[in-house]
Amino acid sequence: MGWAGDNGIRAICFDIDGTFYPKWQTNLYLLRSALRHPVFSMKYNSMRQALRSADGTDGGQAMDLESFRRREMETMGFKGSFEDYMECYQRFMLAPWERNMGFLKPFDHVKENLEKARAQGYLLAALSDFPLSDKLSILGLDGLFDYEMSTEDCGHLKPSRIPFLVMLSALGVEPSQALYVGDSYRKDVVGASSVGMRSLWIRKGARREGHPLVDLVLTTWESFATMVLD
């Protein structure tokens, strides 16, 4: 029995961007968006950082997606109506992302590890800070998850506790029964740990030294099964 079984884990939950596929692929999209409308893109990215800092690991109460978009608009200092903001968001952020999503390629061994975890009876969840759209399907991972959500749908970005709590409630498991896997210590490990989840940091060059909240560290997907499942 692997680490997950030894520690009473029932659900294994995953970040998507940078965890299932290389971060440079997201950065390429962001660059393309910036070139299309540099002023809006720069302000949008700064706004996202401001929201993360404002919420921290707390985040207040869950909100619906429209309320979140209105909060984005206010934080960004957008001059215009909500309809104007949504048009800019659709044209300069969402539409380019969806057009370029076809280039996404997963890391080696991602799918086989997810299939093995599912075959062993673990609940699987995917939690992304970006809209899901057809991302999991393009990565060849659709149909593997019991729960899929963008943090935007509950109104708060990681590391806010809110999306993690919403996900746990939907899965019907206690925090101590869930392992969260992500590539960002600040967003994924800190956020998951703040609600009592266990955490696995998977990233090239990741080290446990200086990162006291993380339970497991892996540098590639190749050793996921032997470390977590077997």
From TrEMBL:
Pfam families this protein is in? HAD_2
Give the GO molecular function terms: hydrolase activity
Q: Which InterPro entries match?
A: HAD-like_sf, HAD-SF_hydro_IA, HAD_2, HAD_sf, S-2-haloacid_dehalogenase
Q: Which UniProt keywords apply?
A: Hydrolase
Q: Which domain of life is it from?
A: Bacteria
NCBIfam families for the chain:
HAD-SF-IA-v1
> PANTHER family of this UniProt entry?
HALOACID DEHALOGENASE, TYPE II (AFU_ORTHOLOGUE AFUA_2G07750)-RELATED (PTHR43316:SF3), HYDROLASE, HALOACID DELAHOGENASE-RELATED (PTHR43316)
Protein name, per record: HAD family hydrolase
To which species is this protein native? Candidatus Aphodenecus pullistercoris
